[in-house]
Hints:
Layout (H helix, E strand, L loop, with lengths): L1 H21 L11 H13 L8 E4 L2 E4 L8 H13 L4 H26 L3 H10 L1 H7 L6 H16 L3 H12 L5 H8 L1 H6 L5 H7 L1 H17 L3 H9 L2 H4 L1 H19 L12 H10 L5 H24 L4 H17 L12 H11 L4 H27 L12 E4 L2 H9 L2 E3 L11 E5 L10 H4 L1 E9 L5 E2 L20 E2 L5 E8 L9 E6 L2 E6 L5 E4 L5 E19 L5 E20 L5 E7 L5 E10 L20 E3 L13 E5 L3 E4 L2 E7 L7 E8 L3 H5 L3 E7 L2 E8 L3 E8 L9 E8 L15 E8 L4
Parallel strand pairs: 3-4, 3-5
Antiparallel strand pairs: 1-2, 5-9, 6-9, 7-8, 10-11, 11-16, 12-15, 13-14, 13-15, 13-16, 17-26, 18-19, 19-26, 20-25, 21-24, 21-26, 22-23, 22-25
Amino acid sequence: MEAGVKARRDLILLAAFTVLLHVPFLTQPVQGDEVTYLDIARHVLRQPLTPLNFQYVFLGHLVDAAGHPHPPLNAYLLALAWIVRGHFSVLFFHLFYLLFALGISFAAYALAARFTSRPLWGALLVAASPLVQVNTNTLAGPESPALAFLLAGAAAFFARRFWMAGVALALSGLTGLQALALSPILLLEYVVKRERPSRAAWLALAGPYLGVGAWQALQWGLTHRLPGAVLLAYAQSPSFSRLGLKAASGLALLQHLGVLVIVVPLARRRLWCLAPGLLACLLVHDYPWWERALLAVFVALGVNALLWLWEARRSNPLLAGWCLLYFAFAVTVFFAGASRYLLALVAPMVLLFVLQFSQRPARLALALAVNLLLGLNLSFAAYEFARVYPQVQAPPGRTFLVDGDWGFRYYMLAHGGRTLDENSVPAPGEWIVSSELSLGGHYDSLAEEAAVPLRTADLRVRTPLRLIDRYAHSGFSAASAGLLPFSFSLRPLDRITYSRTSSFLEAPGPWTPTQFSGRLVYLPIPGAPVHLPLDSRGTLRFALFGRGRGTATFRIARLSGESVFERTVPVQGELWEVHTLPLAGLREAVLSMNAPAELRAGWGELVCDDDLPQATGGPPAPGAEPKLSYLNLGDIRSKAQLGSGWYGIEDGGWRWMSKQAEAVLRVPAEAAPVFEMQLFFPPGFMQRAGGPVTVSVMLDGRLLTRETYLQPGGYRLAKSVPQGQLTAPAVRVTFQLSRAMPPGASDQRELGAVVSRLGFAGSR
C-alpha cells in the first residue's frame, strides 16, 4: 500500500515537472520539418488511406512524399488534433503533443522501476535531458510520439506484458523507423539471462515489422508503389552516402552522446580520450579557435561516454548493450548527424548513470541541475529560431516566390507566396523572398536567373546560443550545418533577401537576355534601339555592362528623343556600373547602346523598384505549352523549356549539361525537320572523362541519333527527324552521354558537354 502511494506521489511530481519544462515553449511557432508533417496531415484529411501519395518541394526539387523517412502515424495524430480543434492552432497542437512528453516521462519511470531503486530520479533525468527537452518541444514532429511508444513498449516487454509491448512497439515503428532497430536489441534481456524467448515475446518484438509491413502492403494495394522502395532509392543517392558525409555524421553523433544526453563524469583511466578531441581540433581548419576548442572538449566527452558505456557492460550488460548497439546502428545508418537520432538511447544511458550514483543523491541532483540549465537554454535558442520567421514581411504584389524551407517557407506561403523550385517560371516583375539560412539555394531556375536583389533584412535573436546559424558551426539538427552540438554567435541569425524578377524578358526588341557571372544582362545589337514599356512610377534600376576593351555609349531617351540618361564609358576588362532612374511619369523609353564589335556591352538588371504591386496577371499556368522550337542556351528565356541536367549560363552564351539532360521543344510546322545541337568539349575533356564520348539523342523516348566524339573541340550534331515521328504539339528531347567529367575539388558538378544551341534548325 505504501509503495502504491509513493508511486502515485512520484508520478504526480513527475507530471508537474514535465509540464513545467514545456510550458514556456507552448507558443513556439512552426519550424523545421514540422512544415512537411503538417502537409502530410492535410493529405490525411483529404485522402485518409494514401496520405503520402503526393509531391512536395525539398531543396528546390519535387520529391515523392512516399519516400519520406517517417511512416505516417504521426500525420494521423496531427489530423486527429486538427479534427478535435477544428482548425490548426499552435497552442492547441503544442498541448496535444505535451501528452506524449508526459508519456515519455511515465514510460521512463516504469523502465527505471524495473532497473533501479530510484525510479523518480531516472524519470526526472530523462525528462530533463537536453536531447529530450529540445526535441519534444514540438507541435507536429514525430519525435515525442515515437519515443513515448518506444519506451512504453520496452517497459512492457521487460515486464513480460507482451501484448502491450507488441502494440506499443508497432505504433512506434509506424511513427519512426528507429523502432525496427530496437526490437532486436531488446532480445539482450534473454541473452543475458540465458533464456529462450517465448512465442509471445517473439510476436511482441515483431510488432514494428508487422506494422510497417502492413502499411507497405496497403500502399501497394492502393497505389501500386512501395514507400520503402521509394525511400531506399533516395537513400542510395550519392549525395547521401558519401564517406565524408558519413564521417561528419558519426562525429556529430559522438558529440551529441557526450553532451546532450547526460554528462558522464571523467575518470583518470579515461583521460586519454582527450587525444581524439585534440586530433579533431587539429583536422578542422575552417573553425575559429574557440569553436575548435569546443570541438576538442565535446569529442573528448563523447569518447569518454563511449568508454563509460563499454565499462558498464560488466555491471549491466543489458542497458550498456542497448546503448552501444543502438549508437553503432545510428552511426552506420544515418547520414545527417541529427541529435534526434539518439533519443532511443537516452533512457538506458540515464539509468546506467542512476545505477552508478544511486547512493550519492548529491551527484544525481547536480546532474539534474546541469541538464535543466543546458536543456532550457537550448530550448530557448530553438524557440528564438522559430520566433523570428512569422515576423518576416511579405513583399508587395499579389504573388511572390519563396526560396527556402522550414518555418520560413510556412509563414511566407501563409502570406500568399508560392514555393520556388528548379522549374519555377516567374510572372514579370514578381518578387523572390529568400533566406540565407533556411535551406535556400540556387536552383538554376528561370525565376532566379531573371531576378535582381534589391534589399535585405537581418533577423536577430535574443540569445547568443545557436542550434543552427550562418556563421556558428552548430549541427544540432544536421551535421551539414556544423559538427558541434551547439555554438555561439552575436551576429544576425539569418538574412532575408528580397529580389525582383525583371519584367522585360518578353519585351520585343533586338536584344538577348543572358547572364554574365550570375548577373542578368540584356545584350542588344549595337546601335539598334529597344523600346521599353514602363509603369511610370518608382525607379528603374539598371547597370551598364561591358566586357572587353573599348568605349561604349549608353543612352535612355523619351519617345520624343529627349535624353533622360546618357553616359560614355571606357571599358578596360570588366564594367558593371549600377544606376537608378526616377520614372516620374515616364511610360515608355528608348534604350540604345553603341560599342565596337570587340566589346560586349549591354544593360544589366533592368528592374522597376516601386514597392507597389505590378499588374502582371499572376504567375504562368503550370504545364503551359513550350513556345520555342529552337533554343539559344545563352538566352535566359530558354530556361523555361530546359528540364533536368542543365547548369547556369556562363559567359553570356552557353551552359554545361551533366551526363544526362532533358529539354522540351515545340514541334515545327515542317514535315521532316532537322534536329541540331551545337556542342563543345574543352581541351583535356576526353582524358578527364576517361575516353571518347558518345552522345545519344532521343525524342519522346525513341532514339534519333547516336554520335561518338574522339577529340575535344566544337561540333554540330545534326539529324533529320523521320517523317511522322513528331505528332504531338511538343516533344521531349533527352540527351545521354556515355561519359562525363566527374566532380573535382574545384568544381563539384558532373560536367558532360558545353552546349550553346539546340533544336529544330529550320525554326531559328
